[in-house]
Structure to design on (289 residues):
């Protein structure tokens, strides 16, 4: 039994009424919503992201035209974690505890936020020191603190860096402070701007394809240009387009992905373009597994 969760609408194609205990598949995925957005500083509302993404997921067919295959992974929706708005420390502990329960079932977590701080709680439950972090985002999120807070949507990748991962790769970066850029260069963090992706996407794809060992994927939906994802916490112009992100996600095929999250969907509207593109990213990720 998973604690601290409630069960709203389930993600499309998940197995109804099943907690994964009886499944004997070699690769199983567990969807969890984490509706926490207490450190949002520009546009709040990502607490509504999990439901919006679940609703949008029913827009897709099981058959994937581009990959010419059915979505045939074992997916279980465990509902939403019962977060404590305004208390990230307690919420992070609940996230860590719940993710460990999912891992104990032999299930790979697929989380939807909620703001980006949730990723650090998830990664505390994993063996990070042997793991490469693949981070899609408009922002580096490498500040040591933001507005006096160590744990913030603007500091999450710094807190993850503190966990000592094997490597960190950031894709879509187009907004950061001078201190963040200096930190990235000093610590040899690989990053690609949208201009670099536009100029030579094959180089970026090869970097992903050449990753060896376990990897964790975190997608801040603001990596997409606001034309494709306007409903985000901190929009930034000149981002990736859905075709580019789709082709990069497809590079995760045959990789040892130990966890995945998608965050910062600040939309509660049915049919909203942000939630549709977000659900599509998860759909593509699951389709290549």
């Amino acid at each position: 039994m998973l604690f601290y969760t409630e069960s709203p609408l389930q993600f499309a194609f998940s197995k109804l009424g099943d907690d994964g205990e009886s499944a004997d598949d070699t690769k199983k995925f567990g969807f969890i919503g984490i509706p926490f957005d207490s450190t949002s500083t520009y546009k709040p509302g990502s607490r509504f992201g999990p439901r919006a993404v679940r609703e949008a997921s029913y827009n897709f067919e099981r058959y994937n035209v581009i990959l010419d295959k059915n979505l045939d992974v074992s997916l279980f929706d465990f509902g939403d974690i019962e977060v404590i708005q305004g208390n990230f420390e307690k919420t992070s502990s609940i996230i860590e505890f719940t993710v460990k329960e999912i891992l104990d079932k032999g299930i790979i977590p697929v989380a939807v936020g909620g703001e980006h701080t949730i990723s650090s709680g998830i990664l505390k439950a994993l063996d990070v020191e042997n793991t490469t972090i693949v981070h899609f985002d408009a922002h580096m999120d490498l500040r040591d603190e933001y507005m006096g807070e160590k744990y913030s949507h603007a500091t999450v990748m710094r807190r993850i860096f503190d966990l000592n991962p094997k490597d960190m790769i950031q894709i879509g970066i187009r907004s950061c402070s001078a201190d963040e850029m200096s930190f990235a260069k000093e610590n040899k963090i690989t990053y690609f701007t949208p201009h670099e992706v536009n100029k030579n996407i094959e180089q970026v794809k090869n970097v992903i394809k050449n990753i060896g060992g376990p990897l964790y994927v975190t997608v801040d939906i603001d990596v997409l240009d606001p034309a494709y994802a306007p409903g985000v916490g901190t929009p930034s112009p000149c981002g990736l387009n859905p075709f580019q992100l789709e082709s990069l996600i497809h590079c995760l095929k045959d990789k040892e992905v130990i966890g995945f999250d998608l965050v910062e969907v600040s939309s509660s509207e049915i049919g909203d373009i942000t939630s549709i593109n977000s659900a599509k990213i998860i759909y593509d990720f699951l389709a290549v597994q």
Q: What stands out?
A: Residues 141 and 234 are 12 Å apart (CA to CA).
